[in-house]
Amino acid sequence: MRVLLFLLIFANLLFFAFGQGYFGQKPSPDAHRLEKQVNPERLRLMWPPGEDPVELDSSPKATAEPAVPPSAAVTPPSASVVADACIRINELAPDMAVQLAGQATILRLKATQIEAANAWWVFIPPQADRAAAEKKAGELTQLGIRDFFITNNAPQQFAISLGIFSTEESAHKHLEGLRAKGVKSARVGRRRLEKTQQSLEIRGDPLVVSVFRNALPAESNVRDCP
Questions:
Q1: Using one digit for the tens of pLDDT, what is the confidence trace for 8-33?
Q2: Is-above-0.85 flag for pTM?
Q3: 70 lies in a domain?
């Protein structure tokens, strides 16, 4: 029994010594794998030595939306530019021209005085009296003509002005449009403005110009700028 006990103790000591490496290191089964590696010097560590490895996230990444190139960016439309409206008030007395110009300036409209000079106008010759002129004006209204004026000054008193123009060509062009609407008695002639009369151009925002025009006296000789 003593011999058997001794052998068991001796066997345990041998096993302990072997496990602690007293009889040499046990060859690693991975040693041959290192010898078979191709270009082992090209291996790189995923993280520096001594630092904890970063946990890799195996979950699928959301695909980033492709960046929109600057050329494809949508540019908001710019606000459309509204053209100025323009009206011309003819046959004004000097003091009336100054008064209207001042009112236009208050409304932030541009008032330009037109020097009295010879001009071309489209007109219906003078009628016998005011009643006849108003009757002719009614006929024009029935034809859809709204832009006219009964003159009050001699020698063309009770004539009906259908427009004053700076050139003969523009006057004849306007006459052709009137004849196409059925106006037969109109003609083109020279228009000499009296030195005491002035013309005034009012230009600016269409809505403000419209309000200014509607506020003028009914007998005003006003029309769109040629």
A1: 555 554 565 556 555 555 555 555 55
A2: no
A3: no
CATH number at residue 156: 3.30.70
Handedness of CA 43, 48, 53, 56 (dihedral sign): negative
Strand 221-224: give its sheet, edge to edge.
Answer: 110-114, 198-204, 85-92, 221-224
CA dihedral in degrees (209, 212, 214, 218; nearest 10)? Answer: -130
Q: What is the 3-state secondary structure (H, E, C) of 85-139?
A: EEEEEEEECHHHHHHHHHHHHHCCCEEEEECCCEEEEEEECCCCCHHHHHHHHHH
Interatomic CA distance for residues 198 and 173, integer angstroms: 24
pLDDT tens per residue, range 91-136: 788 788 888 988 998 889 999 887 655 678 899 999 999 999 999 9
**Which two tokens mark 208?**
């403000």
Q: Rounded to whole angstroms, how far apart are CA atoms 167 and 172? A: 9
Neighbours of 157 (CB within 10 A): 14
- The domain of 97 spans 93-117+200-226
* In a shared domain, residues 112 and 153: no
